[in-house]
Amino acid sequence: MARWAEFEGEAPELASVVRRLFEAHKHKTLATLRRDGGPRISGTETEFRDGDLWFGSMWMARKAVDLRRDPRFALHGPTVDPPEGDPSTWSGEAKLSGRAVEVAQPEQGEEPTHLFRADVEEVVWTRVGSPADHLLIDLWRAGEGLRRFRR
């Protein structure tokens, strides 16, 4: 596992692209594990702050309960369809997985919420190559570094 700043230090170009893709739109898709091990997807918002990637939840929402029981998660950034006619100009899609670490928040007089820091295990950027007959996939894994695949 790595904090965002550690990943960024190991793979700065990939981190920059993934951050740009994540910040392009507000809503992301978070996958957590239900009590029975089945997947659950939920909408969420993220924030890059102080060298970490953060996301939150309303108090005791299903995704927060899932993460408190089993901190494994996957997060898919917002995406748009590749441009018609030249899909190689598409910026691609970004996703990552890891473990959520709940961080206590100071009392603010409001209803409590959950705040999670993402400890990153894997980061992936997928895009269409040029010519548009293949995909390019950059994959970073904690402890393994960065690899690029052509499919």
UniProtKB/TrEMBL annotation:
Pfam families, sorted: PNPOx_N
Domain Pyridoxamine 5'-phosphate oxidase N-terminal: 18-110
Keywords: Oxidoreductase
GO molecular function, one term: coenzyme F420 binding
This protein's record includes keyword rRNA-binding: no
Gene3D superfamilies recorded: Electron Transport, Fmn-binding Protein, Chain A
Domain of life: Bacteria
Entry's Gene Ontology cellular component terms: cytosol
This protein's name: Pyridoxamine 5'-phosphate oxidase
Organism: Phytohabitans flavus
